[in-house]
Amino acid sequence: MRPFQVYDTRTGTVRPFVPRNPPRVGMFVCGLTPYAEAHAGHGRVAVVYDAVARAVRRWGYRLFYVQNVTNVDDKVIDRARELNRDPLELSEHHFRAWLTAVEQLEVRSVNLYPFATDYVPEIVEQVEELVRRGLAYVADGDVYYEVAKFPRYGELSGQRVEALRPGARVQVDPKKRAPEDFVIWKSAKPGEPTWPSPWGPGRPGWHVEDTAITGRLLGPQYDLHGGGTDLKFPHHEAEVALGEGASGRSPLVGYWLHLGMLEMRGEKMAKSVGNVVSLEAAIRIAGPEALRFFYLNAHYRSPLVFDPDRSLAEARQSLTTLGAPYLRLREELGRDGLARPGRELPPDLARAATAMPEQLDGLLANDFATREAIAALFGWSRTLGEWTAKFDTLSGTALATLGAPYRWAAEVLGLFPERSLPRPTADLSSLVRVALDARARARARNDFAEADRLRDALAAAGVVLEDDAGATRWRWRGAEGNP
Ligand SMILES: [Zn+2]
């Protein structure tokens, strides 16, 4: 497992990452409330944590990544009423559209998208536990969390409870003991989806969905929690109070990773602000690869200015520049694959190419500095640019070696996915063994023409054979210095 360090909001420091149960790592990211089309800000969340997950897995950790879906909520219910639709059907519809969009963005790392409504038993159980521990109270079919009973409230976001109290003019829910208390179970109103509970029919409050889901899937304490920085308060503060309150264990989360806001016209992109560009439209404008590049070509903690005419156009231009020599290389390699004959690389250049992935890992291991990694890739693309005119003289192995930094980018950043790139992969090994067995049988019956035919076919596929005293060993050509 490669060591790395990450900025943790709770402690306000960049700290070495130490998982609770290595090599396992549990990661939770606040997902969508799918009451309307997802916007470009949501796309940033999906892409950034996808890159985080890819990197952590590449570094040898067994990451389990959960992103919840808040499919029942005031917003969903209100919107469904406006449209005269069923709320759960409405959220299902928008969630499907979201999946289609993020798949176009090469988001591949989420293990599970749990729906809040599928975890009502866990939610009820957690609310019961909080009532039992005296941290929550029942008022007329509703259940509230009593913030005053949790002294650490405010520690994550650095807020003071007194500062959270609304002004005297604001109407406070008369059922609450204090204005900062928040609802964790809501009694049923006519026409809403409801579930049975010890407090009568009702539905979950927002914050408790997350902690009931993580409690179930990741345990009472887990490693990484992500989400937009706008969720720090009150949502994540509430998660800490709920999770730690229910389990009696602290901390709920080892490392809080908060993502900077996507800004448009000087404000965070949000439906409530009215400055949203739908994710689908952003993909259409930029192209999915350039949009992914745009999100990653910034530090994840920084705000990012979204401007369809400027920043997206610039991202497309930069990505084209970055990718041009590699696309040429792939074309050249695509013709004959790794078996193509030609010159090998000067040793210095081969070493530099082989060392690049490790350097890129090193950059990313410092709080997921994707922008620095992309800058280093630009440096490599300039080197590659100087060799483009000589690509046709190079061997397949030499070309593949030059492409190593881009293969790193495909694996970790999800840029330049290489579906079409001929490259030895582990799942072809079984086919190689089948061919080797056939060749051994041909030789045993003295059918040397057939044995040679199989050997040539394997060589053309990039397999090197070494016959050694009756046994045949094999390896992928270039497999030594060229992962
Ligand atoms: Zn959440």
Walk me through what this model shows:
β9 (222-228), α6 and β10 form a beta-alpha-beta unit. Residues 420-426 have low confidence and may be disordered. With 483 residues, the chain is an alpha/beta fold. The protein contains 15 helices and 15 strands. The radius of gyration is 27 Å and the shape is elongated. It has helices spanning 40-58, 74-83, 87-104, 120-132, 206-217, 232-247, 279-286, 288-296, 311-336, 347-364, 370-387, 396-402, 404-413, 429-444, 448-460; strands spanning 5-8, 13-16, 24-29, 62-67, 136-139, 142-145, 182-187, 202-204, 222-228, 253-259, 262-264, 267-268, 304-305, 463-468, 471-476. The strands form 5 sheets. Strands 4-3-9-10 form a 4-stranded parallel beta sheet, covered by helices on one side. A 4-stranded antiparallel beta sheet has the order 5-6-7-8. Strands 12-11-13 form a 3-stranded mixed beta sheet, covered by helices on one side. Helices cover 44% and strands 14% of the residues. 41% of the residues are buried. The chain folds into 3 domains: 5-131 and 205-305, HUPs (Rossmann fold, 3-Layer(aba) Sandwich); 332-413, no CATH class; 426-476, no CATH class. The structure holds zinc ion (ZN).
Shape: elongated
Q: Low-confidence parts lasting 5 or more residues at pLDDT below 50?
A: 420-426
Kindly provide the radius of gyration, computed on alpha-carbon positions and rounded to a whole number of angstroms: 27 Å
H and E order: EEEHEHHHEEEEHEHEEEHHEHHHHHHHEE
Structural class: alpha/beta
CATH topology of the largest domain: Rossmann fold
- CATH H-tier superfamily of the largest domain: HUPs
Describe the main β-sheet briefly: 4 strands, parallel
The second-level CATH architecture of the largest domain is 3-Layer(aba) Sandwich
Please give the count of helices.
Answer: 15
Kindly give the count of domains.
Answer: 3
State the distance separating the first and last CA atoms: 18 Å
Helix coverage percent of residues? 40-55%
List how many beta strands DSSP finds: 15
CATH class assignment of the largest domain:
Alpha Beta
Average pLDDT reading: 92
**What small molecules does the structure contain?**
zinc ion
Query: Which percent range describes the beta-strand content?
Result: 5-15%
Strand order, sheet with most strands: 4-3-9-10
